[in-house]
Amino acid sequence: MKDLAKRIKALREARNLTQEDAYNDTGIHFGRVETGKWDPKFSTIKRISTYFNVSITEFFAEGFDE
Fold first, then answer.
1. Under 8 Å CB-to-CB from 52, ≥6 apart: which residues?
2. What's the CATH number for 2-59?
């Protein structure tokens, strides 16, 4: 969960987006995801990866401990 939160935050920050920007674009509450207060479903992760224009494979390719 922690790795997922860090990965999403890194993708958002790499694009110079605030949590509010990302929320306004997607309707996904990034603050809850990034703080680990919400464990998103796979469909939400898919929406996030689409939003950041990365495949699911790319999404999980870095930032996750084995």
1. 11, 12, 15, 59
2. 1.10.260.40
Tokens linked to 57: 């494979």
Look up tokens 């993708």; give the residue. 11
Domain ranges of the chain: 2-59
C-alpha 21/C-alpha 10 separation (Å) is 15
In one-letter notation, the amino acid at residue 38 is W
Q: Is 16 left (phi over 0), alpha (psi -120 to 50) or beta?
A: left
Q: Tens place of pLDDT for every residue, the chain, 66 residues?
A: 788 999 999 999 999 999 999 999 999 999 999 998 888 999 999 999 999 999 999 999 877 765
